[in-house]
Design goal:
Distance between the termini: 88 Å
Radius of gyration: 24 Å
Strand order of the largest sheet: 5-6-8-9-10-7
Order of helices and strands: HHEEHEHEHHEEHEEHEHEHE
Shape: globular
Number of strands: 11
Strand content: 15-25%
Structural class: alpha/beta
Largest sheet: 6 strands, mixed
Number of helices: 10
Helix content: 25-40%
Length: 339
């Protein structure tokens, strides 16, 4: 018997050791499955975005400190990570992806990587839907259009204004998704049947975007308004027939649209100047304030229902919204309390 055959025979005498299966918790899987049904990852703008399960923490059955609960947030900051750990949540749904560009290392020196490492050590996963939520029918941009038009998908609203809607950038290649997603796209154009005053639209936007915190029970919404400098009438009386809508940063999508009003989270100084020089009005809300109230108003009830289905009718879980999450900027006026 030559040495090679002897070596192969000796290997066959050793038992084959299988690695234990590593997976996330059943509740985490249910939440991720629900998110993928509500806001399929195929809707995301993959030209720049990074959506999906960004951190999958291994499930340890002996880790009894985690509860069947998910924490929703717009941004996953250190404060939100602390909140998730303290609240013993199993998964964080962070609208904005905390991992946006390729990572070459994971260290504690970087604040975002520090948060990810701490969450992984606690067994907490992170999922980000981002532009899939923007594009989905009934998602973020449709919610903003509902605010502008006084629409309510669950009941008749006395503030409803008849209108039509148009997708700005339809999502291509949706043949593998259910028919209900055929109208998915980024951005919306609303055309009113009858022109609306800018003042009434601004008040409706402020009311629709307001969020209330138990830690600081004050409305957190303010908006910035830009109007053409050549108009003679009072700004609030400017008549608006068409509105271009984009959550977050809408400059690249909205600039150049033939509409009366641009409604978005933020525009640069020069983008806003270009808009009003072209005779358009602008309403901006700060980037994440165009997104935050969507979590409570639309995502929480939709996710609760879908997770219940994923868990075969089990309703013994929580879907919470972060109390720490807020836009980096605050508006401080002369005489503002605490400043």
């Amino acid at each position: 018997m030559n040495a090679q055959r002897l070596f192969r025979r000796s290997l066959s005498t050793f038992p084959i050791m299988s690695s234990p299966t590593v997976t996330s918790s059943p509740f985490t899987k249910a939440v991720v499955g629900a998110m993928r049904k509500l806001y399929p990852e195929a809707l995301a703008d993959k030209s720049f975005d990074n959506t999906g399960l960004l951190l999958e923490a291994p499930y340890r059955p002996d880790n009894t400190k985690l509860s069947k609960s998910a924490l929703l947030t717009i941004d996953l900051t250190q404060a939100v990570a602390d909140e998730a750990i303290k609240g013993k949540h199993s998964i964080i749904i962070s609208y904005h992806p905390i991992i946006f560009r390729p990572l070459k290392a994971l260290t504690l020196a970087n604040t975002q990587q520090n948060s990810l490492l701490r969450l992984a050590s606690e067994g907490i996963s992170v999922y980000s839907p981002h532009t899939a939520v923007d594009a989905a029918p009934g998602g973020l941009n449709d919610w903003l259009a509902d605010i502008v038009t006084g629409s309510n998908p669950t009941k008749k609203s006395p503030y409803f204004q008849p209108h039509t809607r148009k997708i700005i950038n339809p999502v291509p290649n949706l043949q593998d998704l259910p028919e209900s997603f055929s109208s998915a796209g980024y951005g919306r154009i609303v055309t009113f049947s009858n022109p609306q005053s800018l003042g009434s639209l601004v008040h409706g936007i402020i009311n629709g975007l307001s969020t209330w915190r138990t830690r600081n029970p004050q409305p957190t919404t303010s908006v910035s308004v830009a109007t053409p400098q050549t108009l003679d009438c009072q700004q609030s009386n400017i008549q608006i027939k068409t509105v271009g809508i984009c959550a977050g940063s809408g400059g690249s999508m909205l600039n150049g649209l033939d509409v009366d009003l641009l409604f978005t989270g933020e525009l640069s100084h020069h983008e806003a100047l270009a808009a009003i020089e072209a005779g358009r009005c602008v309403v901006t809300t700060f980037h994440s304030n165009s997104e935050r109230a969507f979590l409570n108003q639309r995502m929480v009830p939709a996710l609760k229902k879908m997770v219940t289905d994923e868990l075969d009718g089990d309703e013994d879980f929580r879907i919470d919204v972060s109390e720490c999450d807020r836009d980096p900027y605050q508006v401080v006026l002369q005489g503002t309390h605490m400043w």
